[in-house]
Amino acid sequence: MSNQQTTRDNRERFTYKDDDAIEKPFNWAQLSRLFSYMKPYKKQLLPVLIVMMVLGTVTRLAIPAIIILAIDEAIQPKDGGAPSLSKLYMYAGLMLALYIIQWAANTFRIRFTNIIGQRVIYDLRQDLFRHIQRLSFRFFDKRPAGSVLVRVTNDVNALQDLFTNGVVNLLMDCVQLVGIVIILLVWNFKLGAAVMITVPLMFIVSTALRRRIRFAWQDVRMKQSRINAHLNESIQGMRVTQAYTQEKANLAFFNHINSVNIKAWNKASALNQAFGPIIEVTSAIGTLILFWYGSHLIQSEAITVGVLVGFANYVGNFWDPINRLGQMYAQLLIAMASSERIFEFIDEQPTVAELPEARQLPAIRGDVKFDRLLFEYEKGRPALKGITLDVKAGQTIALVGHTGSGKSTIMNLLCRFYDPNEGAVLIDGIDIRNVSIESLRSQVGIVLQDTFIFSGTIRENIRFGRLDATNDEIVKAATAVDAHDFIMSLPDGYDTEVQERGNILSMGQRQLLSFARALLADPRVLILDEATASIDTETELKIQEALKTLLAGRTSFIVAHRLSTIRNADRIVVLDHGVIVEQGTHDELMRHGGTYNGLIEAQYRFLSA
Ligand SMILES: Nc1ncnc2c1ncn2[C@@H]1O[C@H](COP(=O)(O)OP(=O)(O)OP(=O)(O)O)[C@@H](O)[C@H]1O
């Protein structure tokens, strides 16, 4: 294979779906929704802001006026009198005072808006996380974890500048601009209008550029989002990458997306910088007009030198906010794009919704009935095709069948991670769609094959089953499933810190922890997805014993892989392509000589091969 070929393959190694480009620059409804997050702080924010903004703006606008007075009354008095040093000192003192007030007002405003801005960001992130936690499995099925992560981190961060100083600066710049325009026009209408004649010109020239800047930043955001999604996936899949020694190939792909990102960034920032010269040229033209036309007016004694100097000062101040507004425009666009992505998540409704009139599921006995369940994850591909099963409280049911036959799906419906397309799941005769999700899941426990261990101590990981459990109860639960000894052999016993996904624990140990967790939760109905990984015989025995303790007195459904578990079940339900094909005890099914018999014989053949 040629080198070139390899590079091309690497570029196409992973595919990430780009977000759609946003055509409209502004969506006012969305902007107002974004600003509604500032509402709770309105009362706190407004009075302080108004005072600080007025102080900042008035002092800034007053300084050139004092310069005019200093020239026209102290340095070269209009009435032809002698220059006055004492007056000059007075004006200088006044200017110094104004500068100090301006500095104090601005410093206070910036600190204050930073604090409020951070609170708004906090609220937004909190809102987003609260909502994401409510979303159903279907939502997560469709998206890589990385893309969800990026919205809670990067997209919310992108709003930071806007909320901390952006909005206030925008307001101040607008007020300052309007103030300068009014002052210039009132002071000398002709000169004012002449100086500002270049403004519409600048807007026309920059229109095309603004559009290009907008698309360029959008492109940068997409490229960054791709990097984030890939990074997340790479870190999560690091073991597989290293096991298959794919580091070099992955690096080549990363290099590709990384350099594409840099190119996009360079392009956008070059376009952004082109905005500066446009403003500089227009401001230079404005200044030329000012001095050319202003000196005419001085000659005809229509204005004084002081007025010309004051005008020059105001005109200088006039272009600063325009320049900042240009930059602010890019910031606003980024904020718009990010808020659209954030609101898309916030507007996503959980597909498994709680009825408004949902009642609490009373303490249950544990009778479970699946009534003619039909279910499909994707339209046209049914995963369950009419499942009916009646289970009495306290029974243990083993679900067996080929991979993809629908075992986990039945369990997903019992926990209400999804709702069936047709049919119903009843617990003690109550349709689980009519009760609150919390009251259901607090009585239906699930132990997954891939035990999830969170960062924290072993104790806290077990306590996950019931947050108000005492330390004694935790030890009791761990002892009951025979996890106590191994926990005590860890460096800090129950206080040993385990990292995300429990990397320091073995598979068997993780399973025992998850049993302890479930035992602590003490649900009436227990679902257990048995691990397929083979473990040593001693641990296997331990797990079987622990299982007995865990299952005692509960209605249990086990997606079973071990013959020992299957044999101990009250009933074995055999699934095939979303249909129950057989059910009965081990002996009955073996005698029957059907699918189950085939599965068991295949397992024996495999074990003795
Ligand atoms: N989140 C999902 N989105 C779309 N299809 C899915 C999803 N989960 C499962 N399926 C499909 O539904 C069918 C049943 O899957 P299910 O996970 O219930 O099988 P299973 O019997 O538990 O398999 P295994 O023993 O391999 O865990 C399969 O065809 C599978 O491809």
From TrEMBL:
Membrane spanning residue stretches: 45-68, 88-105, 167-187, 193-213, 274-294
Domain ABC transmembrane type-1, chain residue ranges per copy: 48-332
Localization annotation: Cell membrane
Pfam families assigned to the protein according to its UniProt record, in alphabetical order: ABC_membrane, ABC_tran
Primary residence: membrane
A GO term, aspect molecular function: ATP binding
Keywords for the protein's UniProt record, in alphabetical order: ATP-binding, Membrane, Nucleotide-binding, Transmembrane, Transmembrane helix
Boundaries of every ABC transporter domain copy: 368-602
Stored CDD domains: ABC_6TM_YknV_like (cd18545), ABCC_Glucan_exporter_like (cd03254)
The keyword Membrane appears for this protein: yes
Membrane topology (UniProt): Multi-pass membrane protein
UniProt key word Ligase: no
Protein name: ABC transporter ATP-binding protein
Source organism per UniProt: Paenibacillus solisilvae
